Amino acid sequence: METGQQGTRRGGMSAIRWADVLLSAVAAVSWAFIAMAGVAALGLHLLEADSVASLGPMTAAVVAIGVGGRVTPSGDVSAFGLSGAQADTAIDIAPLGVGLVGALLLSWFFLRSLRSAGVEISPGELLTRAGAVVVLFVAMLGGLAWAGHDIITIDGSQLGLSDIPGAGGLPDDIADKLPGDLGGALPDRLGGLVGAEAKVGFTVQTGATLLGGAAFVIGVLLIALLASRRTPLPRALSAVHRVVRPAASALVTVLLVAVLAGLAAAVYAMTDDDHPERIAGAALLGAPNGVWLGVPIGLFVPWDGEATGELAKLLPDPLDDLLRVSSDQPVTLGRLAELDSRVWLLGVAMALMMLFAGVLTAVRSPVVRAPWGFAGRCALRLGVVTALALPLLVWLTDVSAGASLSVLGFDAFGAGIELHGQLGMALLLGAAWGAGAGALGALLACATGAAGSRVSPLATGATGAAGTPEAAGPYQPSRPYRPANPDTNPYLRNPYDERSRDDRGDRSGQGNRGDQGSQDAAETMASPIRPDPPRPRDGGWPPPPPPPPAPGRNRDGHRRGDKAP
Asked: N or C end: fewer C-beta atoms under 10 angstroms in the chain?
């Protein structure tokens, strides 16, 4: 029955359980958005952002940005009693902490729903389940785009301008040094600023957010399928189990461990800071940003950027000092080490991380006899995966932010950050680091006997009789290729039923010699002791055989040696 059900599930679209598809998609999307909203709201509260605007709209906006959406800030600042004052702000920084939490829960529920399909899954069912998750995710994101808008009002009376000395006029030594009649007009303008209100709003762009969210969820599901070693795939993609998944799962594992290390460093920093809640909020929202920015820098990927104004303080030390001093040269690990020699420890940590990924790849890959051939395979596979993953990290951690307030053409204040990694160098360096780490990790695993010790059953083709993967071992029974049939397999027949049917057939004259011969041949096999034949229905017994002849006489009653009459 189990084999028949598995065959029906792989038969096509008609075998898909639509209720299960819908429920699993709802669970995956719902829990992902709940977790992202919780992390965003808690981070904003710890950063005290809810003191200037409503927490609900800000949470919706942060979640939208975290999954690839776009938020448009806008300003309408009327100050000094003059028209034409504008606030111009542009932010392109994705809080990866929010997106990572949603990606992990989305992947976990989606992969869990696929594992109920057995060893293989039909392409139609895979596309149906993935499509249901994508559609529901984009629909939920559309609701956030509708809710993610608000206006932040800055009250001029709280700026402390009423305490400026000489409110009725500026001192003569200051007024004379100002150009034109600005010395006489400025006190009046400052007085008007006390009662002014600055309104700065933000709005989630619906179209760009929906497109970005669709790309986000499709990318998350694709990475989850490539990195999950125990999730079934269509038969045409069976090579992915042994070629792609060991290396992909190893690299994803070390990147997640790096994020945990970043969170641990934030917890340590909280113990010696006057505002630990701000560190906690920043870590919740942006720990993956900082960690995954350090990964390509530690692997010698060059970056181009500049930083001005107050926003430069958001960058870690000594990156902020380097961008302030010189922006015409790329940011590299060596240039950062010139400002602080401890930066070399970042390179050592990233090299150890890649070596760990190489060892994990060898441990999770099927072993071949030649160690050098095995090392070459691990090097090639991890090199290709890292060459694709490192540019993705560079793209995710790009920073672009700017803010300026211009009044009558004079720049009152300005700040900005631009930091972009070189994608071409990231691809080449990723291939080199992955190949080297894969080869060295495979040789270390072979030397210690750990190579292939954690191979997934799907990568070796070892499955149980019911179609479920089993642990690897010297012998793994496979699923039967056809159902059991007692008519073609004599070992599945009941011997008691066979004996009773044959006895009834012989007494009714329907038996034949050929059947008796086949039965006699079958009785030569080992079988339990059979009971006496059943008693006839008329209650009588067949006549007994004649008694044996007397001693010294033959069967006719004559003595032996006498002649017959």
From this structure: C
Measured CA to CA, the distance from residue 92 to residue 301 in angstroms comes to 21
Determine contact, residues 66/284, Cβ cutoff 8 Å. Answer: no
What b-and-e string marks burial along 98-121, b requiring 16 or more CB atoms within 10 Å of the CB? bbbbbbebbbebbbebbeebbbbb
- Cα–Cα distance for residue pair 119/113, rounded to 1 Å: 13
Give the end-to-end CA distance of the chain in Å, rounded to a whole number.
77
Q: How far is CA 95 from the centre of its chain?
A: 17
Interhelix angle 276-298/371-396, nearest 10 degrees: 130
Name every residue whose Cβ is closer than 8 Å to that of residue 518 and which is 6 or more positions away in sequence.
none
Least confident of 89-93, 200-204, 375-379: 89-93
- CA 53 to mean position of chain CA atoms: 33
Q: Is 553 helix (H, G, I), strand (E, B) or coil?
A: strand
pLDDT tens by residue, 195-226: 445 555 667 788 888 999 999 999 999 999 99
Among 148-162, 306-320, 539-553, the range scoring the smallest mean pLDDT is 148-162
**Res 143: pLDDT:** 84
Distances (CA, A) of 232 to 25, 236, 433, 454: 17, 11, 30, 17
Determine the 3-state secondary structure of 87 from DSSP.
strand
Q: State the Cα–Cα distance between residues 399 and 318, nearest whole angstrom.
A: 16
User: What is the model's pLDDT at position 505?
Assistant: 53
Amino acid at 554: N
Secondary structure class of 102 (helix, strand, coil): helix
- Omega before 318 within 30 of 0, i.e. cis: yes
Report which of residues 288 and 512 the model is more confident about.
Answer: 288
Convert the pLDDT of each residue in 170-189 to its tens digit. Answer: 444 444 444 444 444 444 44
Is residue 37 helix, strand or coil? Answer: helix
Tell me what percent of the residues of the chain surpass a pLDDT of 90: 38
Long-range contacts of 277-281 (CB under 8 A, 24+ apart): 277/46, 277/48, 278/46, 278/47, 278/48, 280/46, 281/42, 281/43, 281/44, 281/45, 281/46, 281/47
What's the pLDDT score for residue 58? 83
Q: What is the DSSP string of 215-259?
A: HHHHHHHHHHHHH-SSS-B-GGGTTHHHHTHHHHHHHHHHHHHHH
E strands, 162-314, where? Answer: 197-204, 303-308
Q: Which residues make Cβ contacts (< 8 Å) with residue 529, sequence separation at least 6?
A: none
Q: If DSSP codes are grouped into helix, strand and coil, which group holds residue 365?
A: coil
Q: Which string of DSSP letters, residue by residue, matches 341-354? A: GGGHHHHHHHHHHH
Residues in CB range of 229: below 8 A, 6 or more apart: 241, 245, 246, 249, 364, 456, 458, 459
Rounded to an integer, the average pLDDT of 380-408 is: 81
